[in-house]
Amino acid sequence: MPMLDKMLERYYASRLNTLAVTAACLGVLGGFIRIFWFTPIDSYQGVVQKIFYIHLPCAIGAFTAFFGVFVASIAFLAVRKDVFDDLASSLAEVGVACCSLVLITGPIWAKPAWGAYWTWDNRLTTTLILWVLYVGYLLLRHLSLESEQGKRAAAVLGIIAFLDVPIVRMSVKWWRSIHPSVLSGRKGAGLDQPMAETLWISLVTFLFFFAVLLVERFALARAKTLLKKVRMQMEVC
Amino acid sequence: MSTLTATWALVQRDFMIEARSKEIFIPLGLFCLVLLLLFVFSLSPLPDQSRQLFPALYLTLLALSGILALEKAIERERRDDGLYGIVVSPVGLSSLYLGKTFSTLAFLFMVGIVSLPVFIAFLGLSLTWLQLLWVVWVEMLFLFGFSALGTLMTLLSWNVRARHVLLAVLLYPLMIPPLLASSSLMRQGLNGRFEMGSGWGSLLVGFDLLYFGMGLLLIEHVLEE
Amino acid sequence: MAQDTSPPLLEAVGVSKVLSERWVLRSVHLRLGQNERVLLYGPNGAGKTTLLKLLCGIQRPNSGHVRLFGHPIDQAPRASLRHLGLLLSRGFFAEELTLEENLHFFGKLYGMDKQSLDERIEGLFSWAGLEHARRSPVFTLSTGQRQRLALVRVRLHEPRLLILDEPFNGLDEEALGFARDLFVQPTTVLFTSHDLAFAKELATTVLLIKGGRIVAESEADNPALMNVVMEALA
Questions:
Q1: Chosen from A160, A165, A172 to mutate, greatest number of chain B CBs within 10 A
Q2: Which of B116, B131, B133, C93 is 20 to 30 A away from residue B2, measured at CA?
Q3: pLDDT at position C74
Q4: Contact B181 A171 (CB under 8 A)
Q5: Does residue C16 sit in helix, strand or coil?
Q6: Residue B157: its chain A contacts at CB < 8 A?
Q7: Domain for residue C31, yes or no?
Q8: In which residue ranges of chain B is pLDDT below 50?
Q9: Residues with pLDDT less than 70, chain A
């Protein structure tokens, strides 16, 4: 897709990327400041509740990224353009990074709140399985040495893994569940006004950060692919 | 040449090869037995516990040994490039997938049937005929999903380095839902409840159908070199 | 190649293939008309086998396209593949099964009925001198016998087009004699061989391939063939 590559080129040539990266970092920093200094402490859970402002954006980021891998994989198998493979691999990496953060922040919060680092609860278990699946996906990509066949294999896995998510979720739900559902209830876990605002701020800043991260990663993947193409063309001449 | 006739030809040939070489059935059965011994020794369950443990143990051990059957089934086709012979024949690629899925299912099912009495004896279970039938039925549904997804995943990971480990790492997490579903169904059966209409029943059947369908749909992308 | 107005059985247009970041084939054009017998000759690693794999659809080209029996290869109806006979370096056999069982399996894949299949196998076994081994498992065969059996498999369903990679590998004098039969019948053949002197007798055209490109083409009965070869592959 030459148009996309042109856009990326312009994005970097105009130094817009420096601006974006700086903004993303400052945004996250600002989010932290807001979370720790300008948000009231939860009356039941205490300070540890604050981790939730980081936990939730990461979870949303991870899930969105994995959905993106699914879509990009279908597109790759349908039209076999490298750009979709690059997109899928970048999304998977960002997704695994987010998912790892979810799995790290979750237990830190859970220990004081539930009294245990880990419980075999619905969402926790689903997230863990998801993480294993996508680390496996990255492993497959790594071990197949970027061969054409490896790219197709990764795409097939990207589709299969995502289709497994609802099934995993349903099965684990019936298995057992204690995770609080924050956003579903009208009052949820009881967020008052400033806390809800902080949540929205951190959602926006973190997701923006992940998006910038994704663009950087994707541009790198594109550059690698294009470089390879140029090298191959030079060999022909 | 219809898809079904071609599938049948492939399954038939797999059975003939197995009848000569016995490289799946006997090693797998033994492996299953050895694993059972390990588990029984290390867990040393009390009689009432073993009734609870049985479904999970039985299905997990079948899944553990099943991966060997999956690899053998594909290795046979790779050894003399037999896969090419089928790919360039007028037979559709879906027949290849169907053939491999059904022969793996058949082998694993037989291993399961043969090892069932051993499990029952070692764990000291007493089952009614109905419960026995139920166990076999649920086992078949589980193994069908396992073979359908496993065949696709084995072909997918074939040309990758360290493929043996990778296959296990990729396949087992995907198999968690059907494992939960079928062990719950079996446990319900052991407690005298035989219903497929519950959530677990539809989840298991849904999983089987979904991945069987995905296999048929995606096999051509996996087979192309 | 001989000019021919009938549509080609096999055609490659500007086919290129990249494998592990190397150009294995670069814009290869090839046209195989009815009853042509084309020898693909070139040094090891020239891309011969890859080209054959692309032409029968085992691999897909990175650019360019292949047409088999007039259809783009990825859309060709599966039934049209019954007119293709393919021989690669390995035989596609199940080691544990007997020669007969293996051939029956392939016969079934090609939709042959039992009666004609039995007769056909009978005939081909005596052609290839394998009657005595028909009930032995394939793994007991020697290299040469395996190659004979592979030739039998290729001819089993009477294909109109043969694609053969090194068909004479491991064959003894006697086998080389009957292997010629593959070429005298009215069939179209694309084959590779490293034995130019022997193979050119069987071909109508010789294509010279080097570094993934077709570098020269010559009539097989051209008296200056050796010079062309020396020049092109030097």
A1: A160
A2: C93
A3: 83
A4: yes
A5: strand
A6: 140, 153
A7: yes
A8: none
A9: 1, 176-191, 236-237
Residues C226, C37: Cα–Cα separation, whole Å: 18
Which member of B76, B85, B87 has the closest CB to residue C106?
B85
Q: What pLDDT, on a 0 to 100 scale, did the predictor assign at position A188?
A: 45
Average pLDDT, integer, range C45-69: 91
pLDDT tens-digit readout, A199-212: 888 899 999 999 99
**Chain C residues close to A145, C-beta within 8 Å:** 20
Question: How far apart are alpha carbons B60 and B56 in whole angstroms?
Answer: 6
Residue C125 is part of which domain span? Answer: 10-233
User: What pLDDT, on the 0 to 100 scale, is given for residue A191?
Assistant: 66
> Is C62 inside any structural domain?
yes
Residues on chain A touching B207 (C-beta within 8 angstroms): 167
Q: Quick count: other Cβ atoms within 10 Å of Cβ B207?
A: 27
Per-residue confidence (pLDDT) for residue A177, from 0 to 100: 47
Mean pLDDT, residues C13-41: 90
**H/E segment holding residue A78:** helix A52-79
Residue C5 lies in a domain: no
Contact C13, C37 (CB under 8 A): no
- Decide if C21 and A236 are in contact by the 8 Å CB cutoff: no
pLDDT at A47: 77
Beta carbons of B207 and A167 less than 8 Å apart: yes
Among candidates B17, B84, B90 on the partner chain, residue whose Cβ is nearest the Cβ of C92: B84
Radius of gyration of chain C (CA): 18
Query: Under a CB-based contact definition with an 8 Å cutoff, are residues C98 and B13 in contact?
Result: no
B159 close contact with C: CB closer than 8 A: no
pLDDT (tens digit per residue) in B105-146: 999 999 999 999 999 999 988 889 999 999 999 999 999 999
Task: Please give the residue of chain A at the shortest CA–CA distance from B212.
Answer: A160
Q: Enumerate the residues of chain C whose CB falls inside 8 A of the CB of residue B5.
A: 108
C2 is a domain residue: no
Q: What is the pLDDT of residue A69?
A: 97
Q: Token pair of B188, please?
A: 């319900």
Dihedral of CA A191/A195/A197/A203: which sign? negative
Q: What's the pLDDT tens digit per position in C164-204?
A: 999 998 888 888 888 888 888 678 999 999 988 888 888 99
Rounded to whole angstroms, the Cα distance separating C110 from B54 reads 47
State pLDDT tens for residues A127-156. Answer: 999 999 999 999 999 998 878 889 999 999
Burial class (CB in 10 A: 0-12, 13-18, 19+), A10: exposed
CATH label of the domain that carries residue C175: 3.40.50.300
Domain count, chain C: 1
Q: Which residues pair with C87 in a beta bridge?
A: C164
Q: Which amino acid is at A186?
A: R
Residue A180: predicted pLDDT: 55
- What pLDDT, on a 0 to 100 scale, did the predictor assign at position C5? 60
Q: What is the ipTM metric for this complex? A: 0.90
Q: Is the Cβ pair A147, B159 closer than 8 Å?
A: yes
* C-alpha to C-alpha distance for A197 and C97, rounded to whole angstroms: 72
Calculate how close chain B gets to A127, using CA atoms only, in Å.
12
Report whether pLDDT(C209) > 80.
yes
Amino acid at B191: N
Residues of C within 8 A of A147 (CB-CB) are 19-20
* Residue to substitute from B146, B180, B224, interface A, most A β-carbons within 10 A: B180
Q: Which of B5, B13, B84 sits opposite C94 (nearest CB)?
A: B13
Neighboring chain A residues of B221 at a CB cutoff of 8 Å: 77, 152, 155-156
Q: Cα B204 to chain center, whole Å?
A: 14
Q: What is the number of CB-based contacts under 8 A between chain A and chain C?
A: 12
Give start and end residues of each alpha helix (H) in C5-56.
48-55
